[in-house]
Amino acid sequence: MLLEAREISFGYKKGYHILNNISFAAESSERVGIVAPSGFGKTTLCKILAGYSKPSNGQVLLDGEDVYGMKGYHPVQMIWQHPETSVNPRLRLKETIAEGDQIEQRIINALGIEHDWLNRFPGELSGGELQRFCIARALGQRTRFLIADEISTMLDMITQAQIWSFLLEETEKRKLGLIVVTHNTALAEKVCTRIQILTK
Ligand SMILES: Nc1ncnc2c1ncn2[C@@H]1O[C@H](COP(=O)(O)OP(=O)(O)OP(=O)(O)O)[C@@H](O)[C@H]1O
């Protein structure tokens, strides 16, 4: 499967574009690191790829089909930098998991999610524990591409290693494309099959 962003332009303020004519493509067999300076618009591009923001110009295509015309589950799922703002604080974590597309128990186990955490609210977990739920939720049955936007910045080294080794194994097994946004070049070089530098 091919995910393509073609000549994307986007601005938060009318008349001022953050992204100007940006093109990007990734195959589901790839793990692509996106590198650009802070404030360039990497998260904005990820939001466009995952269907959260519509570009003012350009198209996002999945195997040639415009994703903004698709209905139902979005095959491009995003894991955000801040898990605490990516979950509903009023839902117990088992309900957060249920927001995903039939998340398999083996994914919950592999991420080290403890049974007792499922009955808690987000405010009762650490950032690292919560991020595991956000990763699990994104790995639904119909997910084809996963976007990881600075997902491990707040984690200790052991947890980072566990989570990345799980993600590499899972994406390989299910042939999911992985797009990685990080300022950590050593991490990008380790986990990605290709690095794409975005330029204005
Ligand atoms: N919701 C918003 N409303 C207005 N401006 C925004 C909004 N979100 C982001 N911006 C601005 O858009 C620009 C790009 O932001 P974005 O988060 O996409 O950059 P980034 O490359 O991911 O940055 P970083 O590497 O620092 O995370 C920034 O100047 C930011 O202030």
UniProtKB/TrEMBL annotation:
Keywords: ATP-binding, Nucleotide-binding, Transport. Residues 3-199 form the ABC transporter domain. One of its GO terms (biological process) is transmembrane transport. The keyword Ribosomal protein does not apply. PROSITE patterns: ABC_TRANSPORTER_1 (PS00211), ABC_TRANSPORTER_2 (PS50893). GO terms for molecular function: ATP binding; ATP hydrolysis activity. SUPFAM superfamilies: P-loop containing nucleoside triphosphate hydrolases. Coiled coil: none annotated. Belongs to the ABC transporter superfamily. This is Peptide/nickel transport system ATP-binding protein. The lineage of its organism: Bacteria, Bacillati, Bacillota, Clostridia, Eubacteriales.
